[in-house]
């Protein structure tokens, strides 16, 4: 073997090493689709709303009907009567995540009964992706629902809308965060933790001190807390998107 | 293509898989062990449903965790109990799974039709799955696992609940699929893999006991399997003295297949995979096997 052939072989070997190295570097790079906006776009246009809620249309319908019934009931309340005045803050705090929790409890129970979790976890869009996106959409929907409910309550009972809306906003994302963390830590059983906390808060709302405590927290503090919790929520959802679920599962 | 490198899997203090090393290439691999021996754990590990306590699983030299969705794009998985939406038709459900697998809709429709035909469900493709038998559901599961034309097909106890006719049909499907992909079939039913597996992997106490061809595995009992013909009344006494693999009765005569050393005066028989399985796991209630 002459010198040129040896050189050519070395060059070929070096090129192969470089190709392999480049492939490894590419593989090690974080997935480009790691941004939350990209995740939302990918889910909406890649998978579509129909597939995101596939199999739980009935749960969506039940949640929407209950939400509409609550709004209708509240709208029918007589104006200016303050029968529930002492407990309103506690009730708003406890009831704000109710619709959100109801939706997820029903959808998790349904999906557990169907038993399709394992197959979905081996797909490109896993069950966790679906869950993260549903949480995102449901969070927005419940935020709007709570704002409407707070508006009606403020109108009917003569409270400041901003105060009630801020309490419900922070409460919703507090419970949403508790739920997603419980879920990642304890699996489907974990969704009963926020439900238990919600029940405890409802009991506490009977006591005047709990209502006073909620009333005395400034609206700005609720807003800051709510925004912080919302960011934390998105951060956890984003971690699911980035498949950090590998570490937390 | 697929390599399991020094993988250990623990649940608390219990080690289910202990420093496992296997290299898989195209073909059918029968993962054979009694219930509770770690077959499902290994399959779930390969399906990214579990993560190893230590070690790595590599696909073409890259970690499956790093490959993430690129790896999930090449796998097809049929779990022990295939979950499905009872009030949906197989076509609708498979189209939904195709969407989750990122298959474009026009291609998905063609693929679903083709697969339903492959698993002989074309006639009932628009019937709700709540009316299906266990075997039909299992066939939907097989079709679901094949949606993305996977390079790695993981089947966990795929013949559970199938009648003999359906088992044969399933075996034929798998045999036809194995030319250009890795098929890993976990089972405790020897006949499921004996005729179609290129290699048999047996687990023993969380470790790989053997990774060999059927002939090599059967060769481990070469010259040790005999068949005795006795009066029925003598079988109990004979069974106490020998390890009997199987019994067959014809009238007042009994035919006992047993492990022996040749001193009984019978001619040795060819050992089958079932003989090896029965002998290897004779004391096992979860994979504790003796060494041959």
Overall description:
The complex is a heterodimer of chains A (249) and B (292). Chain A is built from 13 helices and no strands. Chain A has 249 residues and is mostly helical. In chain A, helix 5 (88-95) runs parallel beside helix 9 (161-186), helix 9 (161-186) runs antiparallel to helix 10 (192-204) and helix 9 runs parallel beside helix 12. Helices cover 32% and strands 29% of the residues of chain B. Chain B has helices at residues 39-46, 64-67, 69-72, 90-100, 105-118, 134-145, 164-177, 190-194, 214-219, 235-241, 273-280; strands at 2-11, 14-24, 27-32, 54-59, 62-63, 75-78, 152-156, 182-187, 199-204, 207-212, 225-231, 243-250, 253-259. In chain B, the strands form 3 sheets. A 6-stranded mixed sheet of chain B has the order 6-7-8-3-9-10. In chain B, strands 2-1-4-5 form a 4-stranded antiparallel sheet. Chain B has a 3-stranded antiparallel sheet with strand order 11-13-12. The interface between A and B is medium-sized, with 27 and 32 residues.
Number of domains of chain A: 1
Can you tell me the CATH architecture of the largest domain in chain B? 3-Layer(aba) Sandwich
The CATH C-level name of the largest domain in chain B is Alpha Beta
Distance between the termini of chain A: 56 Å
Q: Which series of helices and strands of chain A comes N to C? A: HHHHHHHHHHHHH
**Low-pLDDT stretches of chain B:** 286-291
